[in-house]
Design brief:
By secondary structure, this protein is α+β, with helices and mostly antiparallel strands. It contains eight helices and 21 strands. The protein has three domains: 148 residues, 2-Layer Sandwich (Gyrase A, domain 2), CATH 3.30.1360.120; 90 residues, Alpha-Beta Plaits; 74 residues, Aminomethyltransferase beta-barrel domains (Elongation Factor Tu (Ef-tu), domain 3), CATH 2.40.30.110. The radius of gyration is 21 Å and the shape is globular. The protein starts with a strand and ends in an 8-residue tail after the last strand.
């Protein structure tokens, strides 16, 4: 890990991104590639064939101990105890008000011969320090060894229909049989490599966690074989088409998973922090909901733009873009429960003018 003169963190793949003519931006204190060959081209590469992202800025924690799943279970609304070795769960860390501290993925790696469980947590770059503090505080009496590998490991996301073709030749296991949210640890040229069939694009693909030197080897190989390097710009348009929320924009500590459209990660059959708030919301219905919004024209609704119904501001846009796949202006935003039904007509205020929009079914795009 190096730091540039303006004290932004740089990933182990930074110099290789420079060679691929990346344009950089400050993201959560990291100097990250915004785009390489252009947002549309990169977006299209992932939707139609394959693209790769340097996501080494993400937080990477490992956990080991006798009761990793049951200890972590109290901090999330999902039931992690049902996971078998090689399975993963997308979920959220909750505070005592049921608000979302972060959205995370927990990868369960099973037990060893001494009955010691192990797992990996991938968290957002912007919340790594906050998550670490929360986990340390809440797991301190649980006999869990928690390790922060964020600065020691690199992470590449290889995404798109052709991802398997490019990664499979490297590994002895056949990744064809790795189910969605499945994962394994393997060796490539004698180095340990963690591979998961997860991603943030709405396409099939893999996330590859390994040493900086191996990540550089893989990146160079993929570039040589015409895999398109992709930046944060198209990562945002891809995830938005798939209606995947961005922490800090579409969800935060003031929103619950039921409000953020993440009710599917909540399992009420176990005890967890903030449960009573979610139980009450389920009984009384949430006051606001994150909905998918399609603009009725090419005007783009951006973050924080007001949502208007009957001349009253009822909510705000959280994320918005022009979808390169659908060629439509799409957005996510919070509206009161009464205005959250599919087909609900809204208007969005863009530079002091009102433009028509409608609530539509999620997601905007689904892989074929």
């Amino acid at each position: 890990m190096t730091e540039s003169s303006n004290s932004l963190h740089q990933t182990p793949l930074y110099s290789l991104s420079c060679k691929s003519n990346a344009k950089f931006t400050d993201f959560a204190g990291w100097e990250m590639a915004l785009q390489y060959s252009g947002l549309k081209k990169e977006h299209q590469a992932v939707r139609e064939s394959v693209g790769m992202f340097d996501i080494s800025h993400m937080g990477k924690f490992s956990l080991s101990g006798k009761n990793v799943r049951s200890s972590l279970n109290y901090l999330v609304p999902s039931d992690l105890t049902t996971l078998d070795k090689g399975q993963a769960q997308y979920t959220v860390l909750l505070n005592h008000k049921g608000g979302i501290i972060d959205d995370i993925i927990f990868y369960y790696q099973g037990k060893n011969e001494d009955n010691i469980e192990s797992g990996i947590l991938i968290v957002n770059a912007s919340t790594t320090a906050k998550d670490w503090a929360w986990l340390t505080e809440n797991l301190k009496n649980q006999d869990i060894e928690l390790k922060n590998n964020s600065e020691d490991l690199a992470l590449i996301a290889l995404q798109g229909k052709q991802a398997l073709k490019y990664l499979n030749p490297f590994v002895t296991e056949d990744l064809t049989n790795l189910p969605s949210f499945g994962h394994l640890t393997t060796n490539i040229d004698g180095e340990k490599v963690f591979i998961a069939s997860t991603g943030y694009t709405g396409e099939d693909g893999f996330e590859i966690m390994t040493t900086p030197s191996m990540s550089q080897k893989l990146w160079k190989h993929f570039v040589k074989n015409n895999v398109t390097p992709c930046g944060l710009g198209c990562r945002d348009t891809l995830r938005l088409e798939a209606c995947m929320g961005l922490y800090g924009q579409d969800m935060d500590e003031e929103t619950t998973p039921l409000e953020a459209g993440l009710g599917w990660v909540v399992n009420f059959n176990h005890d967890f922090i903030g449960k009573e708030v979610l139980v009450k919301q389920k009984q009384e219905k949430v006051k606001k909901r994150l909905v998918a919004i399609e603009m009725q024209g090419k005007y783009i609704a951006r973050h924080d733009y007001p949502i208007i119904v009957d001349n009253q501001m009822v909510g705000k846009i959280t994320s918005g873009t022009l979808s390169p796949t659908l060629n439509k202006a799409i957005a996510l935003g919070y509206v009161p429960y009464n205005y959250s039904k599919i087909g609900q007509k809204l208007t969005v205020e863009i530079r002091e003018k009102l433009y028509p929009a409608v609530v539509v079914k999620k997601p905007f795009y689904k892989k074929s």
